[in-house]
Every structure is written in C-alpha cells, then in structure tokens.
Amino acid sequence: MDMDxxxxxxxxxxxxxxxxxxxxxxxxxLILPLFIKDGNNIKSPISSLDGQxxxxxxxxxxxxxxALESGVNKLLLFGIPDHKDCEGSQAFAEDGVVQRGIRxxxxxxxxxxxxxxxxxxxxxxxxxxxxxxxxxxxxNDKTLEYLAKISVSHAKAGAxxxxxxxxxxxxxxxxxxxxxxxxFENVPIMSYAAKYSSSFYGPFRDAAGSAPSFGxxxxxxxxxxxxxxxxxxxxxxxxxxxxxVMVKPALSYxxxxxxxxxxxxxxxxxxxxxGEYAMIKAAAxxxxxxxxxxxxxxxxxxxxxxxxxxxxxYAEELAKAISKGDIG
Length: 328
Ligand code: PBG
What we know:
The chain is α/β, with parallel strands linked by helices. The protein has a single domain (22-324), classed as TIM Barrel (Alpha-Beta Barrel), CATH 3.20.20. The chain has helices at residues 14-19, 60-70, 97-109, 140-157, 171-181, 202-208, 228-240, 254-263, 274-285, 291-305, 315-324; strands at 30-37, 43-45, 53-56, 74-80, 114-119, 133-134, 137-138, 161-164, 190-195, 244-248, 268-272, 309-312. Strands 1, 2, 3, 4, 5, 8, 9, 10, 11 and 12 form a ten-stranded mixed sheet that branches. The protein has a two-stranded antiparallel ribbon with strand order 6-7. The protein starts with 13 loop residues before the first helix and ends with a helix.
C-alpha cells in the first residue's frame, strides 16, 4: 500500500494557523520608550519620530494613560534636561527630570506601571558623550561612579528597574554594588549588553538632543562587523550580575539576538530602535509599504530570532494587534 506522507495543510484554516504558531507574543513582554522633558505643559510631537511626543512631568500621565489603554504597562524612561554640563549633573539630581517623572507616575499609578529607566549620560552632558571625559576620551572608571550614582537616584525616586545603556566596561558590577549598598537589592538590571555603534540611533539623538558634539561612540559601542564580541559582552554582563540582557538595534542584528538567546538562560530583550521605527513610518508615508503589516512582521521576526522582550516605539500598536489576534 502506498503511504501518503505529505504533511497535512494545516495552514488552510486560520483557526488552526493560530494554534500551530511557533512564536508567541504577549503584550506583557512589550516596553514603550518615553521621553520626559524639563518644562511645563509640554506635549510636543517629535519630528524625527512620527507619532511619538515629548512630555513634561505635569503631562506625562497622558502618555501613561494611553499606554495602559492599549495594554502596555512597562515604560522605559529617557530624560531631556534643560541644563547640561560636563559631568551630566542633572542625571543624578534628586529633582532631575527623570526622577520627578518617576515620582509623578508612581504617585498616580503605583505598581500598575512598571518603570524602567535608561541609565546613561549622553542626554545630560554638554559634550553629548556617554561618560566623563578625559581630553577627547571617555574615562571608563570615573564614569562608573556616576552610573552607580544615577542608578541609585532612579531607584530612590521609585524606578522598578534600571537599564544602563552607556557600554562602559564593568558598569553592571559597579551599578549592582551601588544599588545593593543603598538597600536596592531588589531592583534588577536590564543591561544594554550588546549595543552596537549604529546609525539607526539617528532619530533618537535628534529627539533626545544627545548627538556627540565631536567624535563618535565607536570607542565604547560595538563594531557591527563583530558577533563573538557581542557574546563576550553578554557573558561579562551576566557574570557581573545582569538580570536581563539586551541586544540593540534589533532588525539588523537578528543573528546576534539568536546567538545570545542560545548562550544564556536569562531573558533576552531586543531594542527595535528609532531608525527602525522611522524607516517603517517613512516608507509607509511614501505609499511603499503597509505600515501595520510590516510592523507586525518585523516584531514577530525579532521574537522568532529569540527575543523574550521587545522595546519598541510601536509597543501600543503591537499590543492592539496582539489583542486582535493578528499576531501572538
Ligand atoms: C543612550 C541611548 C541611545 C539609545 C538608547 N539609549 C542613543 C545612543 O546610544 O546614541 C538609542 C535608542 C533609539 O535609537 O531608539 N545612550
């Protein structure tokens, strides 16, 4: 008797198609970046990031309400201070823009919103580099003290988690030590472990006013020719006490996400950065692609590569797509 060993056509039926999906996404794993700016009564569109806004502290809850309505309850906060100086003092000031933003959100929503803070200096330094300068170069070890101080100030204000994005060596150990010493043993660290020196950050740097005033970030961010180096960075961060490791950007680094997910049991986050978002927006605006379906396809590909968590400016739209059953 001839056996018919062809695979059944499970994909003919949309109900079955959903049942056999290999990649599952939940809104619980989405994180929305949010820019908080010094000043009052500000909700102003960010020209480089269509659909995203700068909020002042007094209006930040409008953004939080919108996120919660769409099913997103995790935020990654970035601060844009009015005052910048060479040591980025507003980054760790008790009344700094992020610290006030955290307190305002926690006052209104308590634990209904999970607050993660970006820990870096480039938005706060007058020179726009991610640390303390010695001449033309960032002094790694001097910067570590500052990163620990910034992290502690965020935790004191009520941050649930800190996310260092500076890429200095040994910063996870320094931050962990700083947090523990101040009684914040329960504040986890999501480390930007494999962060590439990328032109995809362009729209963010416009939004955050954080482009370096001279030089570039190539001495501390990674060269996109390298993958083994990413694994080395990830392993170091894990050894130093990272709780979640991140790969950034996402779409051009799916291979890196995949390899990282294979070498660790820790959750892997991917940051689909400003340039990825801006490209989809621009191509859709030009009538070249369908924004919704490209957004869905891109996000799923990042999870399929091995990410457990996705940081994206599309978090709200994706949460809605998941609740409609289009993805997830
Ligand atoms: C701060 C930081 C950057 C991003 C996140 N944290 C900019 C940079 O490294 O230049 C980029 C995020 C994005 O492009 O969406 N160091």
